[in-house]
Amino acid sequence: MTIIGLLAAFSTTLSFVPQVWAIIKTRNIDGISLSMYSVFTSGVFLWLIYGILAKDLPIIIANAVTFSLAFTVLCLTIRLKRKAALENEISGANLAQ
């Protein structure tokens, strides 16, 4: 049973790697929902806490890695949205001059 859980955790968690890599490589966050990743990351964190309390290794491993990847997407999205807003503000101020 633990092997199946670990394989399921690995394959599900692995699905986040292409998204993280694409954001890092392209700096493009079009289509990334900040609210979805906020709620999802919170949920994964709670699963991680549950796994730790239940001493369930597949849940701990899967959610620790998934949390790291989802949190990375969340942080990059926030950072890049703020950067875009600042650039728009600066270019708007330059146009007003």
Quickly describe the structure.
The chain is mostly helical and 97 residues long.
Shape summary: elongated
* CATH architecture term: Up-down Bundle
Helix content, binned percent: over 70%
Q: Name the poorly predicted regions.
A: none
Mean pLDDT: 88
* Biggest sheet details: none
Give the ordered list of helices and strands.
HHHH
Q: Alpha-carbon distance between the termini?
A: 67 Å
| Total tally of structural domains | 1
Number of discrete helical segments: 4
Q: What is the gyration radius calculated from CA atoms?
A: 18 Å
Question: Could you walk me through the main structural features you see in this protein, from its secondary elements to its overall organization?
Answer:
The chain has four helices and no strands. By secondary structure, it is mainly α. The model has no long low-confidence stretch (mean pLDDT 88). Helix 1 packs parallel to helix 4, helix 2 runs parallel beside helix 4 and helix 3 packs antiparallel against helix 4. The protein has a single domain, classed as Monooxygenase (Up-down Bundle). It starts with a helix and ends with a helix. 12% of the residues are buried.
Secondary structure elements and pairings:
Elements: H1 2-14, H2 17-26, H3 34-54, H4 57-96
